[in-house]
Amino acid sequence: MSLLKKLKQLWKKLKQFVTEAHNPHQAAANHISKIFTVIGAITILVGIILIICNNWYEMDGLFKITIFLLILVATHFAATKINHRFPKSSHILYVIGAGLIIVGIGLVIQAYGLKSNDGIEYLIWFILILPLAILLRSMWIGALSIFAFYVWVITYLSSQGAFFGHQNTSANIAVIAISLICLPFVLKSSSECLKYIRTTGGVLLAILLALLSFSNNASYLGLGSYEFHPLILLIFGFNLVVIIMNFIDLTRSKKKLNVEAKGLVLLGLITLFTISSSYHSSALLTSTLAWILWFLASFWLVLYGRDISNKKYVSLGVITFAIGIVLRFVDIFDGVLDSGSILPISGIVLVLVGFLARKYLPKYLPKSLTK
After folding, report:
1. pTM for this one?
2. Backbone φ, ψ for residue 334 (5° rounding)
3. What is d(CA 359, CA 157) in angstroms, rounded to the nearest whole number?
4. Which residues share a beta bridge with 334?
5. CA 254 – CA 238 distance, rounded (Å)
6. Nearest-angstrom CA–CA distance, 108 and 111
7. What is the CA angle 262-233-299, rounded to 5?
């Protein structure tokens, strides 16, 4: 019997198995069969993985790549086949397939002894999975492509000495962080994964402002450096265009600035602040501006939380403000008082601020935030 006939018979048996699975009289038997099938499939998969691991170093490079391509094709084939009946599982398989691509690129690099110091493999990964994200309209694969792009940007700029080298480290980090915050404005989506991207940018920017607020950090954060890599200037231009365009959209039909427009103004100020620090070497000036922007950001979080009646943003703003007070005391009195004296003093100030907030803030907050 030819191989083609055997495959046809196997396909008929498989179709018969699937058809019988819809028969309610065999529900219990099918359930038991499904358990055995799943356990058997997992056992086979684990066995294959162990065989590959045990013989990995003896395998030819081309054979490794072939195995990987088979796994990649099988993943996407399975995702396509189950798309109509199990869309969520199909989507997960597509995301896994997109993530596997970087593994394949790494295999090629290892198999043929290629060297990559500028992160070109991540750029190739980004180029390969971006069309997949557009074709499937998948925000999660899109987020993965954004991750690939920024890994390449950071790796490439690091190879060019843009971080902790002769160029302005603080400005480079800030430009990248702000671009992460700006991206959801461009994609115009409320997807959960884009919220994580924006949060990542916000956290990175907060850490940078906290570091810059200490005047003795100026030396290793590259203040007073004039050199900017063209890629950084390109991302900086992207940030400014996004901020200006969204600011125009928000203020076009309104006579006064709403809280979102004020947030964009603040983001623009932070952008200009980090770039301007390249043209002077005054650590005191940089520190002062950094803590002013820190407190402005904390006030904005409180105002934004108040306007949308979201207690989480209000709490985050208050926590940010409190951390700012502690950091200011540590920076100002460092070397004058020991840490054992600084922390109690800043704690007393926080208690007083809390007392004043309890007394005077309720009339400025909506009832939904006072419950």
Report:
1. 0.71
2. -65, 125
3. 50
4. 337
5. 25
6. 5
7. 20
